């Protein structure tokens, strides 16, 4: 069964766990790991440099989260457990779970199918109600698949994302964390490991990271402040350990540990957190959290090609990218779908491109047939949006969404799915996401326009037009 490169990493991780289980001083025993790894997993592990094969990180991480899972489920009597990117994890079989525990394994369908084949071949029996959920975790539908498998978001749950976030880009990491906001109730728990941003930028790690990119398994996401990241998504961090620190050593970490206040060192973090009970953070309330703030919603101007919204503010302002934008849009989309469950929401414009500064406005589009626009507009007005009267494209509505204790202005377009503006915005967005250097160039165009005094909306737009025309031609030449 063919697996993509990232899915294959689960095989060598299983091989590493099998190798650990064979040690006399093993930190855990995984009797299924060798069968789950298969010959492919051991072959992949053998291609690793010796220093990578002998690195105790996977063994320490596995033991750390084993102890944590058993501790929080026993102490808090939690019986819903979710493994994100479960891969060949065998905790459903090897840990002693509370009676009545249901464990959901989320990963790609083809990987979980291979896992089931290997489990069936050795007659493995789980120690809980194990429910594999084959789904792409980058899809909007993964929460629906989980709920469809019996998961109850209104009951507290335990989530583990082990060896998961580093394979996502920044947008993907925030999308998953936003999904968890909507799937967890107060008292839920989260365990995850994160690379530091310094790890990804360290010259000491450059050759290893380059090798991962060559293999098609690049590590992409990291944070120097996991506490801040998770707090923005409604979690209170209860513990952060670096491997080698007390509680994350187990007598196996051979190197000194750099203190957190020493910048520039590559690090990994083992993090646990508890879901906040603050209703201001949760997104589960019955009414969508969309509000109109006249002071902010009038200070917007939608940038792009002709026919977009004109301006009310006297001056344009350049704002650096806020990494909460993706979370705010996902919060908005979740709220909209509570009333319009079948809609698709496209985030376009500068705020849809990580790292690209510009107007602090979330431009979103609901693609829908023209005959649906009146019905959708009526529902959106009922949710607190108002018509934006200066738009050349109608309908265009304005409002704000509250997320992580901040309010973000929103411009919401209703456009046919084949509308040329929509196609163009998505093409530009996707190109800039995949070409960070081009996004930085665009940001400089905006900064220069402001510095040159082009702060009136239409003069600001005219200052950007030559660049945008060139960008469109480049996208067309490259066939995007």
Explain this structure to me?
This protein has 480 residues and is of the alpha/beta class. The protein folds into 2 domains: 5-275, Vaccinia Virus protein VP39 (Rossmann fold, 3-Layer(aba) Sandwich); 290-477, Beta Polymerase, domain 2 (2-Layer Sandwich). The protein is built from 17 helices and 13 strands. It has helices at residues 5-21, 33-46, 50-53, 57-76, 91-94, 109-121, 142-148, 170-181, 197-201, 206-215, 226-232, 294-297, 325-339, 373-382, 420-434, 436-451, 457-477, and strands at 80-84, 102-107, 129-134, 158-161, 189-195, 235-241, 268-275, 290-291, 346-348, 362-367, 386-387, 396-403, 406-415. The longest helix is centred in the C-terminal third of the chain and has 21 residues, at 457-477. The two termini are 31 Å apart. The relative contact order is 0.08. Residues 278-314 have low confidence and may be disordered.
Which helices and strands occur, and which strands form pairs?
Layout: H1 5-21, H2 33-46, H3 50-53, H4 57-76, E1 80-84, H5 91-94, E2 102-107, H6 109-121, E3 129-134, H7 142-148, E4 158-161, H8 170-181, E5 189-195, H9 197-201, H10 206-215, H11 226-232, E6 235-241, E7 268-275, E8 290-291, H12 294-297, H13 325-339, E9 346-348, E10 362-367, H14 373-382, E11 386-387, E12 396-403, E13 406-415, H15 420-434, H16 436-451, H17 457-477
Parallel strand pairs: 1-2, 1-4, 2-3, 4-5, 10-13
Antiparallel strand pairs: 5-7, 6-7, 8-12, 9-10, 11-12, 12-13
């Amino acid at each position: 069964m063919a697996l993509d490169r990232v899915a294959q990493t689960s095989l060598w991780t299983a091989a590493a766990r099998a190798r650990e289980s064979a040690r006399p001083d093993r930190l855990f025993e995984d009797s299924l790991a060798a069968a789950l790894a298969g010959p492919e997993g051991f072959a992949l592990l053998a291609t690793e440099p010796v220093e990578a094969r002998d690195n105790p990180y996977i063994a320490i991480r596995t033991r750390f989260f084993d102890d944590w899972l058993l501790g929080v489920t026993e102490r808090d009597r939690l019986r819903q457990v979710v493994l994100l990117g479960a891969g060949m994890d065998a905790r459903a079989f090897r840990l002693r779970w509370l009676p009545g525990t249901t464990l959901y394994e989320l990963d790609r369908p083809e990987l979980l199918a291979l896992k089931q084949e290997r489990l069936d071949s050795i007659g493995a029996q789980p120690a809980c109600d194990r429910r594999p959920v084959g789904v792409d975790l980058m899809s909007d539908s993964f929460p629906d698949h989980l709920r469809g498998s019996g998961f109850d978001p209104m009951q507290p749950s335990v989530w583990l994302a082990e060896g998961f976030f580093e394979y996502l880009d920044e947008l993907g990491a925030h999308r998953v964390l936003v999904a968890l906001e909507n799937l967890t109730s107060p008292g839920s728990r989260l365990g995850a490991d994160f690379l530091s941003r310094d790890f990804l930028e360290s010259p000491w790690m450059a050759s290893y990271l380059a090798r991962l990119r060559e293999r098609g398994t690049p590590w992409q996401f990291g944070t120097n402040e996991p506490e801040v990241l998770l707090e923005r998504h409604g979690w209170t961090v209860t513990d952060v350990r670096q491997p080698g620190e007390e509680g994350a050593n187990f007598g196996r970490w051979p190197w000194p540990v750099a203190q957190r206040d020493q910048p520039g060192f590559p690090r990994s973090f083992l993090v646990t957190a508890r879901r906040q009970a603050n209703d201001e953070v949760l997104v589960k309330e019955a009414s969508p959290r969309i509000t109109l703030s006249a002071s902010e919603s009038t200070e917007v101007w939608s940038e792009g090609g002709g026919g977009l919204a004109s301006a009310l503010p006297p001056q344009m302002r350049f704002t650096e990218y806020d990494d909460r934008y993706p979370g705010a849009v996902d919060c908005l989309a979740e709220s909209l779908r509570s009333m319009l469950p079948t809609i698709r929401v496209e985030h376009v414009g500068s705020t849809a491109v990580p790292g690209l500064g510009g107007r602090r406005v979330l431009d979103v589009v609901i693609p829908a047939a023209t005959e649906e626009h009146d019905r959708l507009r009526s529902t959106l007005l009922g949710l607190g949006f108002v018509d934006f009267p200066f738009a050349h494209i109608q309908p265009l509505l304005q409002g704000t969404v509250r997320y992580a204790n901040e309010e973000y202005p929103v411009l919401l377009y209703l456009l046919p799915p084949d509308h040329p503006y929509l196609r163009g915005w998505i093409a530009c967005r996707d190109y800039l996401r995949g070409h960070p250097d081009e996004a930085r160039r665009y940001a400089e165009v905006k900064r220069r326009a402001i510095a040159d005094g082009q702060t009136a909306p239409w003069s600001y737009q005219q200052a950007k037009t030559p660049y945008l025309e060139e960008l469109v031609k480049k996208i067309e030449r490259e066939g995007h």
